[in-house]
Design a protein that fits this description.
- This protein is mainly beta.
- It contains one helix and eight strands; from the N terminus they run ββββββββα.
- The protein has an eight-stranded antiparallel beta barrel.
- It is elongated and about 65 Å long.
């Protein structure tokens, strides 16, 4: 008999998250101090992966992609040198990760940690109080790490809860007519997932 957790799988997930973007402006065109843009919202997506079990140890890899509505803005005129044209917003529109994971199985319950690379499509804007905001709809690559619990409801079906931290390091962005500003992003995500698992006995029975 094959180990319980050895399988290829596909699944779906949903959840939510909150983020923070930090903007540092060396020339003070947009802000005098580092500006933090808090954001929050929902996400939903799908994943595909595989696990291999060796005794109680389970190792695997996964790719996932999510649609996201995590967004936020800062519009207080007092924060900006030019209060009339102030305002900064950040919106995470799409997220994806490629991770490896390792866990410990106790029968039908698996606890695991994971880590790898992350990608996001982010809409970042300054001057959002004006008719002509500066829009930088950009893609970022960064790192992610997380942990979770997964439970086998039946041989081919599992449910899980997971926390992920995502970080996109500082990058120079042209957000004003003068000098670039430095922007980094971080996200905290909570996901609930459902996986259909193609185990060895399932494949043998069908084919």
């Amino acid at each position: 008999e094959l180990p319980l957790w050895t399988a290829f799988y596909i699944g779906v997930h949903g959840g939510g998250g909150q983020g923070r973007s930090r903007l540092e402006d060396p020339r003070f065109d947009i802000t005098f101090q580092p500006l933090y843009v808090a954001s929050r919202g929902a996400l939903a997506g799908a994943q595909i992966g595989a696990d291999w079990q060796f005794g109680n140890v389970v190792v695997g890899g996964e790719i996932d992609a999510s649609w996201s509505s995590i967004k936020g803005s800062v519009t207080d005129p007092a924060v900006f040198p030019n209060g009339v044209t102030a305002g900064v917003s950040a919106e995470y529109k799409t997220l994806a990760t490629g991770t490896g994971r390792v866990g410990y199985a106790y029968g039908n319950l698996l606890g695991y940690v994971k880590g790898g690379v992350a990608w996001a499509n982010i809409d970042y804007r300054t001057g959002i109080n004006t008719a002509f905001p500066v829009i930088v709809d950009h893609q970022r690559t960064g790192l992610t790490a997380g942990a979770g619990l997964e439970f086998l409801v039946m041989r081919n079906l599992s449910v899980r809860a997971e926390y992920d931290f995502v970080y996109f390091g500082s990058q120079a962005m042209q957000m004003s007519s003068r000098s670039p500003v430095n922007v980094d992003h971080e996200l905290h995500l909570v996901k609930l997932g459902l996986n259909w698992r193609f185990t060895g006995d399932y494949l043998t029975a069908r084919y």
